[in-house]
């Protein structure tokens, strides 16, 4: 994939999963969200730099230390040289993640009781927290605040069975691309195709709204999710990984 395309997808992903606070620093974006998810608490290397790289790394480390957070860098396939330098400084690689893309065909909405909203309903949020095991009220509040900051087109999908949510997911779309994220199924109902149904519902909704492509991010070690997305037609286009300060 071309560098410009990777940078564009990284920009859109940052607009879909918005950090509570962002600093711009010589082509790098420093994101802070009280430690909730690496995506929203890491440095992204998006644009050309002018300041020496060692000076920049030191600056980032001081900023994250001031927030009582480890310094984490989110690096794509374009950032191999920086990754090597960080590893020499003692950073360790965590959660290598594939970005996968799908050219959206015309799709029919799958069968089932599927509810869409433009904003996350309280019922959707309760189900999401329950399925993810996110019980800490402080972290729940951070997640709510992050969702409120998303400015691009969002859709929240809930799949119900007998009136109760058993799967939920969301999408955020701009520039003809819809990011599928927050995909989670009630543990009692996993392995029965409901994850596929909620994904197909969001894909059909995006295609019906005129969106040409869908993309998503999946941790390489999540084999069941990888198989699901490949079966839906997604293909890998690049990888990113986090490099985290400390042992």
Give a structural overview.
The protein has an eleven-stranded mixed sheet, sandwiched between helices. The chain is globular and about 55 Å long. It has about 250 residues and is of the alpha+beta class. The protein folds into two domains: about 100 residues, no CATH class; about 110 residues, Aminopeptidase (3-Layer(aba) Sandwich).
Please tag this protein with its features:
alpha+beta; Aminopeptidase; 11-stranded mixed β-sheet; 11 strands; globular
In short:
The chain has 247 residues and is α+β, with helices and mostly antiparallel strands. Helix content is 34%, strand content 33%.
Class inferred from helices and paired strands? alpha+beta
Please state the overall shape, judged from the principal axes of the Cα atoms: globular
The named CATH superfamily of the largest domain: Gcn5-related N-acetyltransferase (GNAT)
Question: Major sheet, described briefly?
Answer: 11 strands, mixed
Radius of gyration: 18 Å
The number of domains is 2
Question: Which SSEs are present, and which pair or pack?
Answer:
Blueprint: H1 3-16, E1 21-25, E2 28-32, E3 43-45, H2 53-66, E4 72-76, H3 80-88, E5 92-103, E6 113-117, H4 122-132, H5 137-148, E7 153-161, E8 164-174, E9 177-185, H6 194-208, E10 213-219, H7 223-231, E11 235-244
Parallel strand pairs: 3-4, 9-10
Antiparallel strand pairs: 1-2, 2-3, 4-11, 5-10, 5-11, 6-7, 7-8, 8-9
């Amino acid at each position: 994939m071309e560098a410009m395309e990777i940078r564009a997808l990284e920009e859109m992903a940052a607009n879909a999963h918005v950090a509570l606070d962002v600093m711009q620093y010589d082509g790098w974006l420093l994101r802070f969200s009280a430690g909730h998810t690496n995506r929203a608490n890491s440095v992204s290397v998006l644009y050309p730099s002018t300041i020496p790289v060692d000076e920049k790394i030191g600056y980032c480390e001081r900023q994250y230390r001031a927030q009582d957070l480890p310094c984490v860098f989110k690096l794509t396939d374009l950032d191999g040289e920086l990754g090597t330098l960080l590893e020499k400084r003692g950073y360790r690689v965590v959660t290598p993640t594939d970005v996968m893309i799908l050219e959206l065909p015309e799709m029919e909405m799958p069968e089932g009781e599927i509810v869409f909203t433009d904003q996350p309903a309280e019922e959707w949020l309760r189900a999401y927290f329950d399925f993810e095991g996110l019980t800490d009220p402080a972290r729940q509040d951070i997640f709510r605040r992050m969702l409120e900051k998303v400015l691009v087109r969002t859709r929240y999908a809930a799949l119900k069975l007998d009136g109760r949510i058993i799967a939920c997911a969301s999408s955020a779309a701009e520039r003809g691309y819809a990011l599928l994220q927050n995909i989670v199924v009630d543990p009692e109902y996993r392995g029965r195709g409901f994850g596929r149904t909620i994904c197909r519902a969001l894909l059909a909704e995006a295609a019906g709204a005129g969106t040409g492509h869908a993309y998503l991010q999946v941790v390489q070690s999540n084999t069941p999710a990888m198989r699901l997305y490949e079966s839906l037609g997604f293909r890998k286009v690049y990888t990113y990984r986090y490099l985290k300060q400390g042992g």
